[in-house]
Amino acid sequence: MISVEEALERILSYVNVLEPEEKPILEALGQVLTEDVIAPFNIPPLDNSAMDGYAVQAASTVGASPSAPVELRVVGELAAGYVFEGEVTPGTAVRIMTGAPVPRGADAVVIFEETEEAVHKAPTAVRRLDERVRILREARPGNNIRRAGEDIREGQRVLARGVVLRPAEIGLLASVGRSTAKVVRRPVVAVLSTGDELVEVGQPLPPGRIYDSNAYSLAALIERYGGIPKVLGIASDTVDALVAKIHQGLDADMLLTSAGVSRGDYDMVKDVLAREGKIDFWTAAMKPGKPLAFGFFRSGQRRIPHIGLPGNPVSSMVSFELFARPAIVKMMGKTHWQKPTIRAIAKDRIVNRDDPRRYFARCVVTEEGGRYYASLTGPQGSGILSSMAAANALTVIPEDVDVVEPGEEITVMMLDWSQGEEWGTA
Q: Can you list the domains of the chain with their CATH numbers?
C-alpha cells in the first residue's frame, strides 16, 4: 500500500490543465479565466446621483435649515438612463433619481428627506418645471454623488487571468459589456459501473441484485465540482464487456470505474487496465477505500487517466473526494484543490486499531460556544451510504492512532460548511 499523499501526487502528475474555450458568461460560472479583462470605459461612465433628490449647486443652499429653508426653482426632472440637456444654475434645481447622470452645473444632490418632500409628498408623478422646492439642510459639494470611474477606470485590469468566475466576476464581465469569456474548459469524466449484481435504476429489481447508486453519486460529484459527467452504464463481469464499455469512454478526459479493483475472482478492472493500458498502483493506506487502481488508457496520441474506485458506495465517494476531485479541479486550471480542515472535539469513541490505516469516518461537525464538535453518523461500514448522506465532514485519524476517546481533539476534513439546505437540513 502507498500513502494517501503519494497516491494523490501520482494521480495529479498524470493530469494537465485543459485547453481554453470561449463561453457565454453565464455558462462560464465556476470556470477559470484564461485572459486578462481590461475595462474599455469608466464605470460609472458619468458622475451620477447616489440617492433620489435634487441636483443643486451647493452654494445655493448655504444657510438652509428646517427653520430657515432655502427655496430653489425646479427646472427639470431626470430619471436614470437619461441625460438632462439643460444646466443647473444658481438658484435652480433638477429633481433627480438614483443613478441618473448629474446635470451640468450641479455639484451636489440634496436627498428628498432634506426637502419639503419629506413633509409634502407629491400626489402625482407629473410635475411642472416652474415649481419650487424648499431645501431644509445645507449641502456640501460632492454630497450624494458617485463619481465617474469610482468603481472601474478605463484601461484598468478588471479581472486577471487565473481568476475563478464567481457570480461577482460574472457581474463584472457584464458591467464592461462582455457577453463571453475565455475560460479553461470543463473536463468530461466518464463513469462506468461494473458488476453482474447491478441493475439500472427504474428497472425491476430481481432477487440478489442491487441498484447502481455509484454511477449517480459519482456523476453528481463530478458535476458539483465543475466537470461534465458521461455515464457509460453497467459493464458485466466479463473481460469483453468491460473492454467494450471502457472503449466507449476513451473520448473523455478521465475515466472513473467503480468496483472490480479488489482481489475477488470477478474483480478484473485492474487486470484489464494492465492489459489495455498501464497500471501505476492499486492500493492506498486508507479506510474506507483501500482498493484503488490508478493508471491510464491510450486512445491514439491521447492518454486518458483512469481511477478505479472501490465498489462499496461510501468507499467510492470518499476515494472520489480524496483523489478524483483534486484531479478534476487541476484539469480546470484551479490551484486550490484542498478541502478545508479544522480541529474539532470528538463526541464519540473512534477505533482505528483493527487495521491501522488513515481513517476517514463520516461525521457531523457542529459549532457550540465557539468550538467545533464532531459526532459520528452512526455505523461506519463502507456499504452504509446513509452515513455519507448524514455527514458534512470526514475525520482524519492518522495511521498510528489506535483509538480516539470522547473529548479528544481531532482533525476533520469539511465536505460542506453549511449546516443548512446544502446538505439536507432546512
A: 4-18+186-331 (3.40.980.10), 22-40+160-184 (no CATH), 48-146 (2.170.190.11), 341-423 (2.40.340.10)
Q: What is the DSSP letter of 400?
A: T
The partner residues of 346 in beta bridges, in order of sequence, read 374
Q: CA 204 to CA 232: how far, in whole Å?
A: 20
Residues 6+ apart with CB under 8 A from 105: 57, 87, 88, 89
The answer on pLDDT for 77 being more than 90 is yes
Residue 48 pLDDT > 90: yes
| Spatial separation of the C-alpha atoms in residues 150 and 143, rounded to whole Å | 14
Calculate the alpha carbon distances from 266 to 253, 279, 309, 394 in Å: 27, 18, 15, 30
Q: Which cell numbers in the block locate residue 53?
A: 433628490
What is the predicted pLDDT for the residue at 273?
74
Q: Which residues are within 8 A (CB) of 143 and not within 5 positions of it... i.e. 6 or more apart?
A: 58, 108, 109, 110
CB 209 within 8 A of CB 201: no
Q: How far apart (Å, rounded) are the C-alpha atoms in residues 105 and 57? A: 7
